[in-house]
Amino acid sequence: MLPQALIFLDLETTGMSAAEERITEIGLVEVANGAVVGSWSQLVNPQKRIPSFIQALTGITDAMVRAAPSFAQLAPGLFERLEGKLLVAHNARFDFGFLESEFARLGICYRPQVLCTVKLSRKLFPEQRRHNLDSLIERHRLSCSARHRALGDAEVLWQFLQKIYSEVDVVQIDAALRAQLDPPPHAVPRRRKVATAAANPRSPRSV
Asked: Could you list the active site residues?
């Protein structure tokens, strides 16, 4: 099991675009030293209408979030929960993208180390065609207290990480984790390119 503190996180949102849509629910499971140390779920007022098809999918209605706090109100406490912990999410680009955008609107830089369970599943089970959350639940016999609700889905991710240690050799798991978490080695630039860069200096892009 990973030695660092982990946050298994899932979000429900008003749509797919982090630039245009907003978060409606946050669910997370906190794990340290291989054990759950806390969990948290909160509806969020997106300050815009939730499309009817998303209300039907998640069960989260406009009425449910009307009196909920906004992301701005939740941000200080949420950032404190997340800071310094490995973020684990399914299709992590989506969840991280929304968190990054919401924090950025408040002038907060959120750049965690991220583990994507879709990528992990693909690496460990390449013979399988589907790696969405429903497929993982069925294939690994996981339980979900509330599908398409943030905390229920976050709990499934924690179950999945535990389950793979009983199904896959630990050496293979460690290699799959390193493939995502270890930074790529810095390539040694060719001498000609170094000279060109020195002749035309410019500020490095923020990453």
From this structure: 148
